[in-house]
Amino acid sequence: MISAQDKQTFLTWLHDSKKTVFFGGAGVSVASGIPDFRSSVGLYADGSRMEEMLHVNYMMRYPDQFWPGYREVFMAKNDGPNPVHYALSDMEAKGLMHCVITQNIDGLHQAAGSSKVLELHGTGQVFYCMTCGDTYTHLQVESLDTVPHCTCGGIVRPDIVFYGEGLKTEVIEEAIEWISTADLIIVAGTSLVVYPAAGLLAARRPDARLVIMNKSVTDFDQAADLCLSGDLVETFCSLDLCV
């Protein structure tokens, strides 16, 4: 439960801010039926090989093993945008949110209506041929063989950043620009242990407010001006942000 004082503090900072940036992780999409990674019931729990399977070398060397798992987990139907996604879109429409930086690949921020979204780890909604570069949609890949092949014969891959690959320079540079010039940074649904994404917070101005919303503690909590723990949807609704 968020205290009345914390609620008032957050809302005052939000309405006073001239540039607010949201930095989100897998926890943002849990209420949409998409599992997170590092919680006790996440994709990496109980000795799962998912982290190994999401390495670029595994995808390249063992496509017959990679693709069934990728389809089952990352191409599965979900419940669509949840109240957090819609709240952020509504905040943008009201001039209270200026950029969403996400580690997620599900495209749910855009589906909810947010227009300024930086996808640090790429998007699972677009695929491309590793031989000729032709692009494919999610729907098109769904209809292809388990290991999708392009008309040229090359193997198709998701346009995401795998372990072993670098983030796109232009995306990182733009994210740093937003974070370094923000008055208020809201971090939510992320354990802040995945680098270089988590390292982006180092670009924060000394006078910028940092609010962390997460179920569990993070290594950045001591540097935050306000920490709001608990379920993310409940937190947003308690702050009167849900629409």
Topology record:
Blueprint: H1 4-16, E1 20-24, H2 50-53, H3 56-61, H4 63-74, H5 83-93, E2 99-102, H6 108-112, E3 117-119, E4 122-129, E5 135-137, H7 138-142, E6 156-160, H8 169-180, E7 184-188, E8 209-214, E9 226-229, H9 232-238
Parallel strand pairs: 1-2, 1-7, 2-3, 7-8, 8-9
Antiparallel strand pairs: 4-5, 4-6
Give a quick set of tags describing it.
9 helices, 6-stranded parallel sheet, 18% strand, 3-stranded antiparallel sheet, alpha/beta, 243 residues, Rossmann fold, SIR2/SIRT2 'Small Domain', elongated, 2 domains, single chain
* CATH fold topology of the largest domain: Rossmann fold
Give the low-pLDDT segments.
Answer: none
| Number of helical segments with 4 or more residues | 9
Mean pLDDT: 93
Structural class: alpha/beta
Euclidean distance between termini CA atoms: 19 Å
**What coarse outline follows from CA principal-axis ratios?**
elongated
